[in-house]
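Budget justification note: compute hours in this period were largely spent on complex prediction jobs such as the one shown. Inputs:
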Amino acid sequence: MESEGNSEKKLSSSKLKKGSNIIPLTGAAALLTLAVSLAITAINKRRNSKRKDLPGCNFRVNLSASEILKLADRIIAKSKEVHDAVASVPLDKVTYKNVISPLAELEAQQFPLVQSCVVPKLVSTSDKVRKASAEAEKKIDAHISSCSKREDVYCVVKAFAAKGEWMGPEARHYVHCLMKEFERNGLNLTATKREEVQRLRAQIDELSFQYVQNLNDDGTSVLFHENELAGLPAEFLKTLEKAENGMFRVTLKSHHVAAVLELCKIGKTRRLVAMAYGKRCGKANLSVLEDLVQARHKFARLLGYSNYAEYALNPRMAKTPSKVLEFLEDISSSLSDLANKELAMLKELKKQDEGELPFGVEDLLYYVKKVEQQEFDLDLGALKQYFPVNLVLSGIFKIFQDLFGLRFEEIADADAWHSDVRMFSVFDLSSGELLGYFYLDMYKREGKYGQTCVVALQNGSVAFNGARQVPLALLISQLQTDIGGIPSLLRFTEVVSLLHEFGHVVQHLCNRASFARFSGLRVDPDFVEIPAKVLENWCYESFSLKLISGFHQDITMPIKDEICKSLKRWRYSFSALKLKQEVLYCLFDQIIHSAENVDIFELFKHLHPKVMVGLPMLEGTNPASCFPRCAIGYEAACYSRIWSEVFAADIFTSKFQDGLLNQHVGMQFRTKVLAPGGAKDPIEILSDFLGREPSIQTFIDNKIECSLWH
Ligand SMILES: *[C@@H]1O[C@H](CO)[C@@H](O)[C@H](O)[C@H]1NC(C)=O
Ligand SMILES: *[C@@H]1O[C@H](CO)[C@@H](O)[C@H](O)[C@H]1NC(C)=O
Ligand SMILES: *[C@@H]1O[C@H](CO)[C@@H](O)[C@H](O)[C@H]1NC(C)=O
Ligand SMILES: CC(=O)N[C@H]1CO[C@H](CO)[C@@H](O)[C@@H]1O
Ligand SMILES: [Zn+2]
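Corresponding output:
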């Protein structure tokens, strides 16, 4: 989840209400409505009356350092009390009411309080508060982790599960998840084996930390004369350190490497940098990775799985390693013809430029960039002028409100942690029911968390007594604030990222699960990105792109059709080669985590030409040694990004492409896909919406149809 830019004047709520009406306007007319209301916005002040009591909202805003620490202690004490009470239920007296319901309600009630303690770490303007928040987080995390290892609670839950009391499907699923969580912690094992599980887990953490640490510690750099860096802009050269002999020092930080590989005209320089980059950590990390993978397999076997990938995939939509391998190989082979065409074109270009030198992976970025510059005439820098932040935001609001039958209303003078932060209520348009709230904290600030993301502050849930807690989301982004009155302009990639993140906000708010655990964004990790990725498509279609763009000095002037078309083609340019390169790493990750005794060095060498239509691995490099995603965070799950993109393409193309503001389809998406959240099996959810099983074919067809050869 990722963004930058700056703002002028906040949109008033009156504007937002207007945008929310389902006005069946198209094109220029819709744009004009927007433009007019935007102009009004500029002179209006916020007019809503002050509203402090927010129904269904238990998140506490802007606590002081001491309040945070006190609240954390209270959360832990209360949680301990409830767990103790559950643990003390005699095994023959277990019921839903005395075991499951207290645990579920505890989670639901405590989550917003936990977030009240933890989120200030990300957004508070006070150092002291951020520190207290980090301290509280540590304590709370340690406590939660200890609860999930409580054998006494596990026994009671197990006794309840074995009793077979009648429950609705969501409650049944909840109990299943509780049991799974305990079992994945080794609680159904003998004490010795459980200790072994803990020991292996600590070893795994240590090794993955070491792998990443080794990469970070690598301080290798390569020296070049100015003429060897031909093609790189002067501003870039200025940022490089100079060695005593006047040569430029290129480090192996990704922004240096990317610049050289994309822009440097000298093939030999690109090759040297690519080699140095692929050689980081020498062979040292290879053995770290080997040990790491062995430890993971052992860990998984203790828990009853035959390998680590099986353990990792068990709770995911993809389910099994063989399914993932089949998926990746399908994608790769379906794209081979296209990749061959792409590669032939690049090879031809290199021949024209550099003669008969062989084409290598180190040439990919440079020639791709070159073709893109010739083909698309896209000046992404100049394009910014069409994306003033307020216009983009109101366009996004309009799209989401119209499509999903929602109404956003700004809460004037809402309590927040900074005066730039804005808060909105979200209503169902037809019933007027309050669905939840969201905060926008859009601008870069000192001390603020540096990524663009959505944080759930409170999840929707319904208590045993019927009381409903509504979802509350926070969108954090990194736009620049106004400089000298020029409205903040967004880069196109920032527009896409903002719309994507806003997709997560809507996903969170439209969730109707009754358990906090299935609500929010706590859904299958293979599934969670799909809705936001579906929605990204609105950035590439002329009709919707015009709703979120307008020339900054005359916002009635939307982006030109040719530019919209170029953006779409740019999105798909060389997509087969780009994707195959990613597939290569995903295959590597999946294979080492699903098979025993793999020679990880040889594996990469073998896979490289096979996936990359004949291109060999760059000699002397050792990609397995510098692939942090498979060491930490994405192990056995690297495929997941492609997975969600593939199914998002299927959904968009088959359901939305011909009706970008079709509220009928939008409402179906809302009720069938967004509403169930984690309470239902994702394949079932998608099949229900699509009327068939999701397929990879649309994704492949899109790539072929939108390629340069079509
Ligand atoms: C523990 O639970 C897992 C997952 O349900 C199961 O596969 C395994 O066989 C169980 N182990 C024991 C010792 O009961
Ligand atoms: C947040 O709390 C601090 C004191 O902890 C206070 O100084 C500040 O004004 C508050 N901010 C807002 C926006 O209410
Ligand atoms: C609520 O949702 C968030 C994000 O989706 C998740 O991290 C959190 O665990 C959920 N809360 C509960 C109580 O499950
Ligand atoms: C154990 C070992 O050899 N570690 C090496 C890993 O990589 C870093 C950075 O290249 C080296 O400094 C370590 O010595
Ligand atoms: Zn995302």
